[in-house]
Amino acid sequence: MPDRGTWQFTAGAAVIGLAIAAAAVTAAGPWDSGQRKAERDRAASLGRTGGTHHQAPGRGVDAAEAPGPAPAPSAPGVLAAAPAPVTRSDTGPADPPATSSASVAKVLAPLLDDPALGPVRTASVVDVGTGKQLYGRGATTPMTPASTIKIATAAAVLSATGPDHRIPTTVVAASDFHGITLVGGGDPTLDMPRLRSLADRTAHALRDRGVTTVRLAYDTTLYKGPVAHPIGAGNDNIAPVTSLMLNEGRLDDSTEGSADRGADPAGDAARAFVGLLSERGVNTEAGPTSAKAPAKPFPLATTHSAPVSALVERMLTNSDNDIAEALARQTAIAGGRPASFAGAEAAVTEQLKRLKLPVAGARFADGSGLNRADKVSAAFLTAVLSRAADPAHPELRPVLTGLPIAGFTGTLSGRSSAGSAGLVRAKTGTLSHVDTLAGTVLSRDGRLLAFAFLAGDTSSASVARPALDRLAAALVG
Which UniProt keywords apply (predicted)? Predict the structure, then answer.
């Protein structure tokens, strides 16, 4: 890999780069339609082509209310789009491989020594096509990963439940139909349109039986253990972790990022449901009250989340902590373990072992990365990303398609270094004095590379993040 100062694309190579960027943006974009539109507009302004629709099934009321899960779309092949290796166009000898171990080390080593990354920094770069590690520094050293641990959460839940699984929220009745229970299945993305639809069908089912007055309870017993994340109650980065909530417990109209959260998301969702039933002519005698559903319930109505594949993409693109904790618990449920922090940790670890990933020294204390007790190595993260690109594991492809795109989407929408916009896809991670970045990039000779850079004891995210972005950009060539 030549020195970064000499990496200048020819006009032809630049066109190839723009085409790759367009493919990355349009063929594997994130879940949000507004984001896709912005990407298409920006790509068009740069001369890119494309426009593949990437709306995940299950978005919107009609699809979400389908009686059974609909298959998630298969993600596009990752390796097939790589261009042929670039060689010199004159009669001289071909350029040396841009991604040889020696050339990668030459360009990354000085960038990794940037004081902005603090005194403790580790790195791993792997050629996904061959599985060969091209560069490593402290690659097997466990580090606090912050939100890059969501890559592990994603792989675990996709492996455990499959990408097509949807999370239910259900209304059931007692034998006399005068007592009904709203049962949380662990879907943090339940929103008002879907709750209204659930109320519509519940009211219709009750009217068919001549019932107009009910006792309403809500059941959150699916989740076990502490409700508050170890980061502490009242944190605007995550709601209390409960199996029933409306719009992630947010007290505003936001759907991503930090926001004030209600102290009782389950109760708030149940009270909203009471109001919707009342509007539909079903009155409640009292409540709602927290109680376990009857042992032999009669199902009245159900709403399903988007497929896990879409939830994984949304989690990764926006670094959504509430979805991350929910998906960790879905992993626990699928593995027959308690849906708690401890149960999720055990289940995630088990699934990653089944995927033959190097979990020695790793700890998955939560699904979101907010817990500083989490530990993974740079080599572990590149191994997960490589496994997600493996044709033998198509169920893991959303791990890659959900990664934010530098300069375009999610937590990388405002981040890119020279030459990396549209070409680097990576999960960001930030805690106080911890800054991380892990993802994929197409090198200039057409190789798909997985990388992970973990920095600890950083002085400031404002200087550490650009240093990490320069490392990723250096791999583009």
Answer: Carboxypeptidase, Hydrolase, Protease
The structural domains of the chain, ordered by start, are 85-162+311-474 (3.40.710.10), 168-304 (3.50.80.20)
Catalytic residue among 150, 305, 386, 417: 150
Whether 386 is catalytic is no
| Digit-coded pLDDT (tens) for 252-271 | 999 999 999 999 999 999 99
150 is catalytic: yes
Whether residue 33 lies in the annotated active site: no
160-191 confidence digits (pLDDT tens):
999 999 999 999 999 999 999 999 999 999 99
**Catalytic one among 124, 159, 243, 319?**
319
Name, in order, each residue with C-beta under 8 angstroms of 198's C-beta and a sequence gap of 6 or more.
Answer: 169, 171, 273, 301, 302, 303
Q: Which of 124, 147, 159, 243 is catalytic?
A: 147
Q: Which residue has the tokens 């099934």?
A: 57
Could you tell me if 458 and 92 are in contact, meaning their C-beta atoms sit under 8 angstroms apart? no
Residue 67 in this model has a pLDDT that exceeds 80? no
The whole-angstrom separation of Cα 222 and Cα 186 is 8
